[in-house]
Design brief:
37% of the residues lie in helices and 28% in strands. It has helices at 3-27, 71-76, 85-94, 120-131, 156-166, 179-182; strands spanning 32-33, 42-48, 53-59, 62-70, 98-105, 113-118, 134-140, 143-146, 171-172. A hairpin with a 2-residue loop joins strand 3 (53-59) and strand 4. The N and C termini lie far apart (59 Å). It has 6 helices and 9 strands, in the order αββββααββαββαβα. The protein is α+β, with helices and mostly antiparallel strands. The protein has one domain (31-182).
């Protein structure tokens, strides 16, 4: 076998493998795991802006929105209009640094918040999951250095999904998108 044929063969195998991987990854968006809680002892919320989900807990009389994500997105991208190919490449490939953003608000935003009913135990699992997702050192006001890395296959939405799964709540098997999570909650 000559060199050109070997390269073609390797590229075909890589292409087929990538196609199968992508098919499996996106199929996992539609495979549910966990269950709806039989308890309504507690509740928390999911705030979805169409691209990013925050977990919202009511604590000390205020709603706190917890969002884990790319340091580049949180600090260099104000709007999607300011997202450049360079920043996207940096986010997904070369700079996996993460932050946990904590935003406080006194009002309930019923327009884009989805209610998640849960037991006290499940609520505590979610709180612990959030606490274990960052270091206690502050990066900037309302931002803490995050643990784990942001990658094209592990995003802010994957982080929320993993928290729901840890608590045994309804969630897709795997997701990159916010919609595949929020479709389970009204």
């Amino acid at each position: 076998m000559n060199f050109k044929k070997s390269i073609k063969h390797i590229l075909k195998i890589c292409g087929v493998s990538l196609a199968v991987f992508i098919l499996i990854m996106f199929t996992a968006h539609y495979i549910p795991t966990g269950s709806y809680s039989e308890s309504s002892e507690r509740e928390f919320y999911l705030s979805d802006n169409g691209a990013h989900i925050d977990i919202v807990l009511r604590e000390d009389g205020v709603f706190k929105l917890y969002g884990w994500g790319s340091k580049v997105f949180f600090t260099e991208v104000d709007t999607f209009d300011s997202l450049t190919i360079g920043k996207l490449y940096k986010t997904l490939i070369t700079d996996p640094s993460t932050l946990l953003r904590v935003h406080k608000t006194f009002y309930f935003d019923s327009f884009n918040w989805k209610t998640v009913k849960c037991s006290e135990k499940q609520y505590q699992i979610i709180k612990k999951y959030i606490d274990e997702s960052h270091y206690n050192s502050e990066y900037a006001p309302n931002y803490y250095y995050g643990k784990d890395n942001y990658r094209w296959y592990y995003t802010c939405n994957t982080w929320v999904n993993d928290g729901l799964k840890k608590a045994g709540l309804k969630a897709p098997l795997y997701t990159l998108t916010s919609e595949s999570i929020t479709k389970f909650y009204n």
